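Q: Protein A?
A:
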Amino acid sequence: MNAATDVRPERSSRVDPVTGAVIQGALESIAVEMGHKLMRMSYSSIIRESEDFGTALTDATGRQLCECKMSTPLQSGPIPGYIRGILKELAARGETVEPGDVIMHNDPYGGASHGPDVAFVVPVFLDGTLIGFSATTAHHLDIGAQTPGSTGIVDAVDTYAEGLQFKAIKVIERGRRNEQVWKLLRANIRASALVVGDMEAQVRTSEIGAERFLALVRHYGLKTVMDAFEDLLDYSERLMRKAIADLPDGQYSALTHIDGYLDDPDPAYRDLPIKVTLTVEGDTITVDLTGTAPQVSDRPINMPLVGTVDIAIWLTLRSILLDSIVYGSIPQNEGLTRPIRIVAPRGSLANPIFPAPVIARFCPGNQLADTVMKALAQAVPAQVSAGIGNLRVIAFSGIENERQWVHMEILEGSYGGRFRSDGMDAVDTLFANTRNNPIEDIESHLPIRVERYQLRDHAAAAGRTRGGVGSVREFTFLADGAFSVEGDGHKFEPWGHDGGGAGRTASLRFVHARGEIEHLPSKVRFHKTRKGDRLISEGPCGGGYGNPFERDPDQVLGDVLEGFIDAEGAARDYGVAIVGQAIDRAATAKLRAA
């Protein structure tokens, strides 16, 4: 029985709607301004170009007031967890938050998404009373792990091997810089000029956010601002509860797999399942991950429950059930998560036990989000895409003029076909939302040349709406260096939906300057290179949606002319005969009739 009548009644507003809307806009404007400030002050392209950062304001307990919507969901979304982790750590040490403090935190078992995503948090005080926090997070090029870079670390045996751990460290205390901490950072991080410069940009950005929030509170009064915030929480909660209540009650399960370590002889490291069961009861939903693989205790593909798993689940449900095209701009706050309960067995990939390593949690987390979408497809098939093509992150590094350089390159995946439109090509999917680096930026700063950057040819999955295609990237090393890779999707094809075809897997080839070719797995440990060596990455292609024979023949012709499929595929998969650059209508009718 659909329990729409169980939706909780709307309570009366604490402030008038106009004032509430103005305060909502002001809060969101502060978060967006923080995002622009951080981008413009940062040194490294992972923040400046890829926008792999987050900014947000919270109340004094860590409840999120707003977040920067143009940033990465996997950065802004976990900020409440960072705040709660900081408060818990400080309390355990018998310390308190003071005016003028700036706190650094990256504990993956204390709310952080993973170690390289470092938060800098500024408490906001009004007349001596703590009223909230202004926070930034950002993915840093290096955090002092056993090999260069902050991704591509795929063989760490525990969290200690993943780099420096900061648990609520006051880098500025009561307005005074702790220079010893900054010296430690510069001495233990590769490419420290860039990384520490980015960290200082985060500090100033968080301070700006605190100044703006305090000005807003002084203008409207603390009670009015916080009453408006409570109204916004209730509003977001009502929207989510109504969306859940509109679903048919019941259970919806889905199973997918990640590669794991395909080159490892031990089967415990390969073909790891992710299982999701959604239970809809009235206006609440339980997400049960029972059946997901056990944690891998000495490989860093485990996912922190707080900071990765919860964000993957919340973001997917929010995006599908409260589509912005239908609902418009929705306040991004914790009200959206109140109707959602997560069950994750302790000791599983989705809830590892310290000190299990977690730095390479990115691709497994994205696959978890895809599995939630696959389960939800049974309830709202018109609101999902078919299976996504997962992403890949490469850490390039080397030494030039006796100085270490490090570069992070996020390589796109693709979306599956959707109910009314084709899958998006060569784009960061689900909780990633980062941008690509301009080739000009790469080649002007690094000893790397980008030989190719194009869409895959003849690779779109068949469907009434076709799957999106991945990109091809080819890099040439102009000097000796190294790389490591964190990826997935070399073995398991993205799932097709409602009769659509499965997507294409990814591949990675290393071509030595002398001509030898290595076919590499989706996860590559630190791999040295010589001048003239090339790395060629083919991204995965999303699944198709719906019966391919229902696709308009003219659209199929367009796919052939644009290189998404070839004429042979058009006949085999779509029943459309293409001769030259035109449709043979009579032959097509026979193919489709057969």
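Q: Protein B?
A:
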Amino acid sequence: MSLHPVIAAVTERVIERSRLYRAAYLNRLADSIHQGTQRSALSCTNLAHGFAAFPAHDKLVLKQQRQPSVAIVSSYNDMLSAHQPYEHFPHIIKDAVREAGGVAQFAGGTPAMCDGITQGQPGMELSLFSRDTIAMSTAIALSHNMFDAAVYLGICDKIVPGLLIGALHFGHLPAIFIPGGPMTSGMSNSEKSRIRQLYAQGKIDREGLLEAESKSYHGAGTCTFYGTANSNQMMMEFMGLHLPGSAFITPNTPLRDALTAAAARRAVEISGQGSAFTPVGQIVDEKTIVNGIIALLTTGGSTNHTIHLIAIARAAGIVIDWDDFHRLSSVIPLLTRIYPNGEADVNHFHAAGGTGFVIRELLDGGLLHDDVTTVLGKGLRAHCSEPFLDGDKVIWKDAPAQTADEAVLRPVAQPFAPDGGLRLLTGNLGRAVIKISAVKPQYHLVEAPAIVFTSQEEFMHAYQEGKLERDFVAVVRFQGPKANGMPELHALTPALGNLQDAGFHVALVTDGRMSGASGKVPAAIHVSPEVLAGGPLGRVRNGDMIRLDAEAGTLQALVPQADWERRPLAHVDRSSNVIGMGRELFAMFRSTVSIAEEGAASFGLPHLATPSSPEINQPNDAAEPFSDEDTHVQQSI
């Protein structure tokens, strides 16, 4: 089937507005590719340092400078359940690469922090900045210039985006991302949510809450709900950076280990010394980025990627913005129900048909680009498959023709919803995104007076004191990247859910984040620009009527324009947010970070070779906006 016209139009818009930057990036990539092995550019002294501690056979291979050296960049630590399995991966990778004729070297480790541990804590203010720290750590690992390809071990929230940003800054090197897989299913997500709300109401104690949480998060692997970690894995599959169907195979199983070895062997094949040289900077192009957005929309993925994908794209010289997400969301059907958008977890999703099923359905419906390069080099349709063991080797079979559970996974012809549930909101409060796939239609419009908070702690105090039992819009500001690193505000979710369940009309408006666990309460998040970048959220006062309309796409303070424009921006003492828990070390990020719609990034687009080339200051001003006419282009299946 031919490509849907809206997807074609969005892709062309991205290509046109990125043309100069993408050309500069590809020129830089070409300049970095050496003839022969990368390490041939090193002096004898450099090279001797690079293999001094290696076994004799591997040292001989590196000396001969004919076979590839594969870098291992890992985010292993044994505190985080998702990353603990990576302890054993380097051994598997080294053996597999050696069997394929090359050498694998552990090039470096990156930090890996868990938002689930730091929620509501000062350390959460380092979370977003950890993404670019990971990118820089990746660059340091690869800076030795010993490597002809790389494999990247990472799963969770900021880690995969950080690794990919780092990889794209070494875009001349082929790359494969190797997931670790989800933990086995524990307590149901709906039951976990119910107990959290009971705790927020004071109906169960901390011991009861901890017992429930321990049954939910109980073993090695990623958390099984569909938050940012598992959205990362879905995105890597759709972008062709995983081996097919490898995202949701549980850790410490024979198939998981066999997939790791297969990925390592494929890294040798796509290296400059292999049969299919494929630099990662060529894989990640405009169509691949559009496919990544579609992956998130069709599965109800994490809103964090309305920031991360923008930053990833910038690293490859590609410019996208929230208009692109919004336009694509209008025609991409929702094909999955995975918690918090349903009852199932990612293990249920995988058993129902998994990523291969979704990719095939979208390709057959003209809703995804097939003409892309992947780590297999065969177009995206080669990823409409799932892995199985044949002895100790991996084989791939076609994805199931039918879903095994229509409550979890559906075909394009019978989606859960006709659109992706992600909307762009605009108005005199700025630009924001809202995820409504888990919000009931009767809550898509909220008009109520503002109650202004400058922290989630301030909100929770008001809630616990019984001051919020009414209709209101919570405006939680000074939560953007410049203010305090843009922490996720999950402490608000159970309280707001309780108030909505009690019959009150409530909503959240914030320049902070809510992420993949955004739930049933309407939340306008990532309001951009944030207050410290001059954003109008700083003009809101208690009692102002706020209108959040997800259907009309508006976010408006109902204040006379003249009065609105005369108001000064609010100020707040931020001294408590800049010292302690290492926050003082990240002052440079707070002072230089871009706005959320530019990826909340500490790095810029590729340098243009022609100084007179126009700069792109605001993404939404860089190209002609979509017309009203194409806003109403209907999905054709």
